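DM from R.C. (forwarded with permission)

"hey, sorry to bug you on a friday — could you get me a structure for this? deadline for the figure draft is monday and I only need the backbone to look sensible"
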Amino acid sequence: MISYDREYYKPKTIQEAVELYDTLDSKGKAPIFFNGGTEIITLGRLNLISANAFIDIKHIPECKVYEMADGHLNIGSSLPLSMFDEKQDFPLLSQLAKGVADATSRNKITIGGNMCGNIFYREAILPFLLADSMVYLAARDGMKKRPILEVFHQEMLLEKGEFLVQISTPAKYLNMPFASVKRRQQWDTGYPLLTVASIKKGDMLRFAFSGLCSFPFRSHEMEEVLNDRNKSYRDRILSSFSELPAPVLNDIEGSSDYRLFVLKNILLDFFALLEGDV
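My reply, with the result:
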């Protein structure tokens, strides 16, 4: 059980949610926006969340959108990951979403909740980092549209009172050649050791990683090295490790050395698939 009193609200509009946040914040309630809620419930049971007011945004229509419009796929932040088993417009997203937790959990975990959470993995964000996606954020001064690569740096850098409404991805990225793989050290639905995703845009490969460092990321510095055709695939991969943005995780799922060993072999497979034989 969550061991503290809490208030729960279900606004029906973006404006209501934003105003509700300000009202609760002014009363010292330390409100937080609530989407899928699986992580909040887990952390709450461990007394790791100080909020005593939750604002559930799942009932806001704009957060439940799934549509192709004006050359973009718009995905509401409150859609469950299980939906992408059925929706195959963005195959890379569908493949990565299917690997998160188990089928029952994916009915509850939302795409926005996964992207904005605090756990290391947050695999659902990887396709959007690769595809130059934009995010729509609700804020006091209205809706903001910003490139995801500006908003996400180790975590979603939301201002106080903001929440994620939609993610918009240009249609040209949806069916580009791609590869993705998740490696686990333990059971099929346990936490991953490593998740890697790549798309091929023209003759350049883009890469995004989860489980390698303590946050998901796409590194332009690593991509520059990995696309250096003056080097062999193995040399590119080994050289790219010097461009990692943070120390490699070393935990119960796997040592840092083991993670790098697994990553090297994953990247060799990606090069073979997307560029040709090693």
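R.C.: lifesaver. The first strand starts at residue 7 and ends at 9.
me: no worries. The chain has three domains: 7-56, 61-173, 178-274.
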